[in-house]
């Protein structure tokens, strides 16, 4: 065992959260040096996935009863932000790893045992778009479909997808008259991966399409994510309430990294063409940086307050509330918009040097814009936020 592995193991045994952060700090220079390789390959190299696995990203939200770390949510968010601050694609993969562990907690006990039968470091990915159908048949479901945006599928051990439940070819009505949805999870070998991930940003996430061609899936392998929690503890009370907050952590971590890169460029002493002074001595640059730092601080405070609020609800047993999903969406949308603005401003302040592929600023810019296209960050979610504000104000008036 190498010295760095011994040090990481020592920290991990004493304090898993601190151990993970120490491992990330140690791995950071290698991730930065391999950013171009990650983008060109359009997925993470297998040896880097193994390093992330050894740090514990696949087990961070797995229950201690199954050998996991079961970090509390604020601690897990810190891990996610730390890796995203280094590289957007690596950060996105880390978020998928965390979400995968939380999704699995909703599975049947039989399926959960199979997923983790060989240990807690299981890479789980999937697509949350209901792009498949699950036809009810004797003994289970006949599942087929083609799902987009299956980030991490190239190194996944298990893959899941959302399906519309059907009977005799017709959708089964669920709550509020909407089609009933279920998730299916199968070993990665049972899925086909289509090479479709040619994207503007987050290139290294391997977010290809995945396909199932009419497969009979037993009842135990299909589950309802809105069912009562199967695992004890605040982390597993509800899933949908956590998802917007996880996306907010991604936006924030990437914005922090963007500012890091801008400051590093300024400290090289770079002086732009026709400028009277180096960037760091220019009042125009200092003014722009001051506004950026204020936006970043506001984003950090907003996300921190939202995470703390949700975690208090989780500890009190009151997390499973639709209004908390809307509150989380409000923060995710605002954070995505604000962090994209931070990246745009950093790119502009950096000048012409930022346009080259060698500049991390252009990659941060692309990654943040692509991340902001995610369903959890869409501006249309503000509609529900506004409706909630109206309901609450009407209640106060009465």
UniProtKB/TrEMBL annotation:
SUPFAM superfamilies: Acyl-CoA dehydrogenase C-terminal domain-like (SSF47203), Acyl-CoA dehydrogenase NM domain-like (SSF56645). Signal peptide: none annotated. The keyword Calcium does not apply. Residues 29-111 form the Acyl-CoA dehydrogenase/oxidase N-terminal domain. The keyword Lyase does not apply. Keywords: Oxidoreductase. It holds the Pfam family Acyl-CoA_dh_2. It comes from the Bacteria. InterPro entries: Acyl-CoA_dehydrogenase-like, Acyl-CoA_DH_C, Acyl-CoA_Oxase/DH_mid-dom_sf, AcylCo_DH-like_C, AcylCoA_DH/ox_N, AcylCoA_DH/ox_N_sf, AcylCoA_DH/oxidase_NM_dom_sf. Residues 245-378 form the Acyl-CoA dehydrogenase C-terminal domain. This is Acyl-CoA dehydrogenase family protein. It comes from Bradyrhizobium campsiandrae.
């Amino acid at each position: 065992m190498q010295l760095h592995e011994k040090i990481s193991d020592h920290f991990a045994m004493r304090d898993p959260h601190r151990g993970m952060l120490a491992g990330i700090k140690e791995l950071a220079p290698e991730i930065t040096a391999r950013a171009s390789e990650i983008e060109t390959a359009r997925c993470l190299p297998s040896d880097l996935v193994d390093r992330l696995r050894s740090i514990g990203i696949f087990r961070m939200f797995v229950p201690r009863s199954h050998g996991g770390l079961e970090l509390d949510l604020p601690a897990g968010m810190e891990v996610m932000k730390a890796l995203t601050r280094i590289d957007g694609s690596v950060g996105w993969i880390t978020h998928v790893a965390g979400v995968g562990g939380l999704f699995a907690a909703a599975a049947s006990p039989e399926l959960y045992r199979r997923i983790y039968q060989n240990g807690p470091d299981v890479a789980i990915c999937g697509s949350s778009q209901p792009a498949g159908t699950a036809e009810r048949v004797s003994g289970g479901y006949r599942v087929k479909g083609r799902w987009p945006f299956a980030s991490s599928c190239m190194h996944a051990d298990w893959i899941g997808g959302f399906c519309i439940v059907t009977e005799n070819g017709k959708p089964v009505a669920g709550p509020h008259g909407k089609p009933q949805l279920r998730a299916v999870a199968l070993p990665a070998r049972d899925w086909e991966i289509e090479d479709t991930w040619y994207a503007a940003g987050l290139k290294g996430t391997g977010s290809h399409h995945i396909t199932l061609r009419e497969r009979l899936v037993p009842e135990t392998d299909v589950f309802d994510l809105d069912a009562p929690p199967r695992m004890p503890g605040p982390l597993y009370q509800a899933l949908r309430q956590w998802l917007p907050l996880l996306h907010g952590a991604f936006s924030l971590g990437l914005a922090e990294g963007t500012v890091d890169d801008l400051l590093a460029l300024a400290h090289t002493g770079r002086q732009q063409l026709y400028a009277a002074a180096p960037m760091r001595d220019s009042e125009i640059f200092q003014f722009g940086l001051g506004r950026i730092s204020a936006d970043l601080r506001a984003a950090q405070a907003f996300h921190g307050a939202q995470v703390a609020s949700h975690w208090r609800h989780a500890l009190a047993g009151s997390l499973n509330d639709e209004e908390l999903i809307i509150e989380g969406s409000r923060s995710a949308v605002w954070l995505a918009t604000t962090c994209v603005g931070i990246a745009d401003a950093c790119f502009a302040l950096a000048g012409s040097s930022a346009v080259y592929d060698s500049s991390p600023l252009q990659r941060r810019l692309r990654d943040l814009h692509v991340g902001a296209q995610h369903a959890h960050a869409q501006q249309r979610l503000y509609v529900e936020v506004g409706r909630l504000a109206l309901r609450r104000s009407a209640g106060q008036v009465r």
